[in-house]
Every structure is written in C-alpha cells, then in structure tokens.
Amino acid sequence: MTMNSVSVKQVTFGKQPAIVIAGPCSIESEEHIFKEAQALKAAGVDMIRAGAYKPRTSPHAFQGLGFEGVKYLRAAADSVHLPMVTEVLSEYDVEKLIDLVDMFQVGSRNMYNYQLLKLLGQAGKPVLLKRGFSATLKEWEMSGQYLMSEGKASVVYCERGIRSFQDETRNTLDLAGAILLQAKTKQPVVIDPSHASGRRDLILPLSKAALAADISGIMVEVHHNPDQAWTDAAQTIDYSMLDQLMKECQPWLTSN
Ligand code: PEP
Ligand code: MN
User: Fold this and answer.
1) Atom 9 in ligand 1: which residue has the minimum CA distance?
2) pLDDT tens-digit profile of 221-249?
3) Ligand 1 pocket test: which of 73, 192, 235 has the largest number of ligand atoms within 8 Å of its C-beta?
4) How far apart are the C-alpha atoms of 137 and 250, rounded to whole Å?
5) Is the peptide bond before 17 cis (omega within 30 degrees of 0)?
6) Residue 155 in 3-state DSSP?
7) pTM of the predicted model, to two decimals?
C-alpha cells in the first residue's frame, strides 16, 4: 500500500520502519524532562512526547506546567537530538507555541474543536490528531480533513481507545478502526496503547498487535518511576518494560 508520509524533522511516519513515540504523560519539572529525554534516547525511541497543557477530568487536578513546560521539553528534546510532540489545548496558544514545537498534538477532547483544527491547518506544522473517545471513524477522518484542507498541515492519526461497555480497561482499542482509517485515507495511523488500555501490562501485547497489522507507529507513556508519575501512573511503563518492548517489536522497528 502506498501511503502519504509525514515528516517531523528526521522522523518519517508512513514508511518502514514503524515509529516509536514515547515519554511521560506530563512534564513535571525541567530536571524531570531532561532525565526522561536522556533515557528515551538511550532506549532508541524516535520521538519524545510529554504534556504541558493537560486536559484533566477534574479542575482540581494538576493542569500541567503550561508554557514553561513546553520550553523545558524543547530544550530537553534538543539536548538529545530527538523531535518532540506536545498537546495544544486551546487556539489561544497556537501562535505562542508554533516556533517551539515540532508537532502539535490535538487531544481526544479537542477532536471536534473545528476552530482549533482550522487554525492548526494554517499553522504549517505536522499534527498528531487523536481520536475523540466517542467519535466515529468518519468524524475522525473529517477532523483530519479540517486540518489538511487548509493546505499546510500534514496529519498523523492516533487511535487512543474509545468508550465501550467494557470496564476492565480504561478504553477499548479500536484496532480494526485504526487499520481501516489508514487504508482509506492513506495517512499514517499510530496507536496509543497507554490511553487505550489504562494498564501497563497491556502496552506490549497491544503494541505488537498493531505493528503486526502494519500500523505506522505507537505512542507510549514512559516514566523513570511510573508509580510516582503525576498523571496516568497506572498506564505508564518503566524503562525496563520499554527495553523489552523495543526488543520484542524489533521486526517492525528496523527497515527490511
Ligand atoms: C495524552 O496523550 O496525554 C492525552 C491527554 O491523551 P488523550 O487526549 O488521548 O486523552
Ligand atoms: Mn496521559
């Protein structure tokens, strides 16, 4: 299948090999993100993820470090020569962040925010578009078109789990939907097994399943001390689990 490729600095989505994006759910401090960046580089991941604007269910929960956090992430990513992706929550922040980020992440809760999508479509940076947790494939596809029809944005879709009656996992990974969307749009689709499952013991098998199905990459939450992570601790893996994942996924992470 010929796919449209999306480049973020030296990383290309939509070609072999598949791409691994990894990092903590949240940037906790400057020192924290530098430490994670070094370990992520040593583990051999392609790109760093970390959130500074956090869309939390409770307004009383940690909301992220905001603009300062993005500056720390920028410097940490540069220190190890890896590109980074971070979420932009509001259209008010696009201009402020445009020169700092390599790729914008649109979160699940914002997939229907058409004003934000239009603005990002004009901004000219690649976008990682997460699926709304109750969005149909068609709605998700159309949100990608909002971005691309402005002519300047390239889009990587990210399946992060949808709501279902199944309550043993945080969400339900719609692998079939991810495969279908990639085949239909020819845009790269990656999966986020962390938010899709909410459980660190499912990250490895879900990653392998997706990569075996020719999904273009994975995005996983990693932390030096996952149980102490400020956000999403239960679904965050440590570096020994990341090493195992990189080893077991090797067939898809090297070109052949
Ligand atoms: C995240 O990636 O940390 C995140 C908040 O994801 P989602 O928008 O999929 O909930
Ligand atoms: Mn998270």
Assistant:
1) 108
2) 999 999 999 999 999 999 999 999 999 99
3) 192
4) 30
5) yes
6) strand
7) 0.98
